[in-house]
Amino acid sequence: MNSALFESVRGWDTWLRNPTFIDTFTEEELKEIYKQFKDICVKFLEEDVKWTGTKEKSLPMATKVTKNERSEVERRYT
């Protein structure tokens, strides 16, 4: 699932950076895509934060994420 999601996101990123492709959408279509993708993205990130936090708390002390590693992870969400 992660690979499929990654490839889909990468494909959309490529398409949306391409002026020729983006011109095939109406403004209304782009607004609809934005709204739908935003809802999906927020839900995905909420689940990501929830499960990552749960697992970080359950790690044995020797394998806990260091402050520097945690800062790197936190930067991904800002």
What does this structure look like?
The chain has one domain. It has 4 helices and no strands. 0% of the residues are buried. With 78 residues, it is mainly α. The longest helix is centred in the middle third of the chain and has 32 residues, at 27-58. The protein has helices at residues 2-16, 19-22, 27-58, 67-76.
Topology:
Layout: H1 2-16, H2 19-22, H3 27-58, H4 67-76
N-end to C-end Cα span: 24 Å
Number of strands: 0
Overall 3D form? elongated
Can you tell me the number of structural domains?
1
**Largest sheet composition:** none
- What structural class is derived from the secondary structure elements? mainly alpha
Helix content: over 70%
Instruction: Quickly count the helices.
Output: 4
pLDDT < 50 runs, ≥5 residues: none
Give the amount of beta strand, in percent: under 5%
In N-to-C order, the SSE pattern is HHHH
Average pLDDT reading: 85
Rg from C-alpha positions?
A: 17 Å
